[in-house]
Amino acid sequence: MFSYAIRRLGALVPVLLGMTLIVFMMIRAIPGNPAQIILGQQATKTAVAALTEELGLNKPWHTQFFGYLGGLLKGDLGVSIRTKEPIAHEIWPYLAATLELALVAMLIAVVIGVNAGIISAWFQNSWFDYLAMIVALVGVSMPIFWLGLMEQYVIAIHWDLLPTTGRDNIRDPVEAITNLYLIDSLLDGRFDQFIEVIKHLILPGAALATIPMAIIARMTRSSMLEVMRSDFIRTARAKGMKMFWVVYKHSLKNALIPVVTVIGLQTGLLLGGAILTETIFGWPGIGNYIYDAIGSRDYPVIQSGILVIAFIFVMINLIVDLLYAAIDPRIKYK
Q1: Taking the model in full, what pTM does it have?
Q2: DSSP E strands, the chain
């Protein structure tokens, strides 16, 4: 498996290089001059030209690209045009916020989605099965921005149960250590802050979890139904094994491959697709970070943000591939 992982990592190099080139060219196609935006519409042409030269935006695109690529190979993501800060230092708090939100959302989606799919397959054609699949269909079809706004209005404003925006209590902020506030609050020994962070995560996490939860539930049900019709399941039931153990010990283990695939794909999509949720709930994640950079034509931030998300996405796919062998010993990597 180790040699397979090394080969897969090697195969990712041309993928990431191609992705870097595509992102670089697409961003250069965005209308507007960053120098003009930084200086304002009243700036003189001389000032704009001077700043354009200072930022290196007047150089040929291939010179800019290879300069950026050379920095990437050294671990340098560049410098933000807006803030003049190194992106490698600036991006982590935003990425940590998105990672925390995405992992909580995926935890909700997996726990509820997998169990809903299992119970639907267990009691096929029952009222629960029909209800769960209808809810899953609605969940896939429901716009996240509408669900987020409804959550805010009903739960946060009308019932006043949970906060509407932010990651923590602004009157008693979490001391950033890792920038993962759930961990930081525990490292600081502040269990009250830990509870407060959880409260801030519930609404955006639930909104973000809706679509993957519905997809996971439908995939789990489909995979479980196929496995539960197998001969070894009928044999286990004929031997008198309790249905609970038949479902959770034998059926689920053999139905996990397609479910794990969907979970991996949805986890990667959550990282890149959280921008609507982050905007609605005022969540300071990487989606908002990139969105603000697009507005100011901050090319290095846009490039680096997209590439970081892409890198995480392909690494998640690699981890999913390696998990196949752990789930099913019949799968061998050569």
Answers
A1: 0.88
A2: none
Q: How far apart are CA 90 and CA 206, in angstroms?
A: 28
Is 213 exposed, middle or buried (CB count within 10 Å of its CB: 0-12, 13-18, 19+)?
buried
Cα–Cα distance between 127 and 131 in angstroms, integer? Answer: 6
Tell the residue number behind the tokens 């001059």, with chain if given.
33
Residues in the chain: 334
The CATH number for 92-327, chosen from 1.10.3720.10, 1.10.760.10, 3.30.70.580, 3.40.50.10790, is 1.10.3720.10
Q: Contact, 286 vs 305, CB < 8 A?
A: yes
- Write the pLDDT tens digit of every residue in 261-297: 999 989 888 876 678 888 889 899 998 898 888 877 7
Residues near 91 by Cβ (< 8 Å), separated by ≥ 6?
Answer: 77, 286, 289, 301, 304, 305, 308
| Beta-carbon count within 10 A of 27 CB | 18
pLDDT (tens digit, 9 = 90+) per residue, 172-193?
Answer: 999 999 999 999 999 999 999 9
In sequence order, the β-bridge partners of residue 79 are: 86
Nearest to 293 by CA among 284, 302, 283, 285: 302
Report the run of H or E that residue 227 belongs to, with start and end: helix 191-228
Please name the residue that has the structure tokens 């030269």: 53
CA atoms of 310 and 15, how far apart (whole Å): 10
Domain with CATH 1.10.3720.10 in the chain: 92-327
